[in-house]
Every structure is written in structure tokens, then in C-alpha cells.
Amino acid sequence: MSATGLEVFDRTLQTTNIWLDEVMEAVGPDRKLAWHVLGAVLRTLRDRLPPTLAAHLGEQLPLLVRGAYYEHFAPAHAPLRLDTEYEFLSHVEAECGCARPINLRRAVRIVLGVVDEHTSPGMTDKLRRALPHHVRPLWPEPEDVGGDAAD
């Protein structure tokens, strides 16, 4: 039986919970924190991408996640100059406003791995190529996702 009465809502709730479960591997069993980290990483990625590529990524996100992704989107100001890993991580941290300390680099890598796992083939390559050289190492290799990668 449907939880909401609408299949589209049930499906996005289920998919969003799968994404959050994967993010909780990095931030611990705090679903609210996982939601904030997921949104912060996706918005930072969005703001660093050319608007057209950001829109292509947005099309592939679950409906609920897409709402968080597009929050405060200003395509006229994109892409932001986040040219180093430090700048990218600092922007994520500011977006997140995490209530407790987390391994931010690992959390970013987990979220990017979730994006890789749940978007169409080839999207990761396009996204990775759109990022500056010094930010690309944040994108995990497939064998790093979901395991106990040493970050």
C-alpha cells in the first residue's frame, strides 16, 4: 500500500532514503545531518558547474533531492571560482552549517560517490571534467565508494 497515496512521492521518499543511508556511512547515524551534508555538497557542486551541466545533473536527482539542489540557485552567478580542494570544502562547510564536527573530505567523497552510483553512465566523467584539476581528487574512485576508504 502507498504511504502517501501518490507513487511519485513514495518513489522519491524511497530513493532519497537510500541516498541518505549511503551518506550516513560518512557522517554517522544522524539522518538530519546526512540531509544537510547531501544538500551542501550538491549545491557546492552545482555552483561550480556551468549552468547547463548543472541542469543536466539536476534532471537525474530524486525529486526531494532536486529541491534541495536548486535551493537558492543563481545561474547568472555560476560557475563560482572554487579552484582548490580547500575552497571547495570550505564552501561545503559554509553551506552545511554542520552542528558537529565531521570528516568533511570523506563526506564530500561519499556524496560524490552516491551521485556517481545513481546517475547515468558518463555523467561522472562530464562532472569531473568540469571541475578544476585541484578539485577532481575529491571524486572517489569506484573502489573507494561505500568502503572504509582511508581519506
**Which of globular, elongated, flat, extended, rod-shaped describes the shape?**
globular
- Give the CATH superfamily: Uncharacterized conserved protein DUF2267
**What is the arithmetic mean of pLDDT?**
89
Spatial separation of the terminal alpha carbons: 42 Å
Percent of residues in β-strands: under 5%
Helix content: 55-70%
* Helix/strand structural class: mainly alpha
Helix and strand element order: HHHHHHH
Report the total helices.
Answer: 7
CATH class placement: Mainly Alpha
CATH architecture verdict: Orthogonal Bundle
State the total count of DSSP E strands.
0
User: What count of domains describes the coordinates?
Assistant: 1
Q: Which ranges are low-confidence, i.e. pLDDT below 50, for 5 or more consecutive residues?
A: 145-151
Q: Write down the CATH topology.
A: Globin-like
Radius of gyration (CA) equals: 15 Å
| Sheet with the most strands, sense and barrel status | none
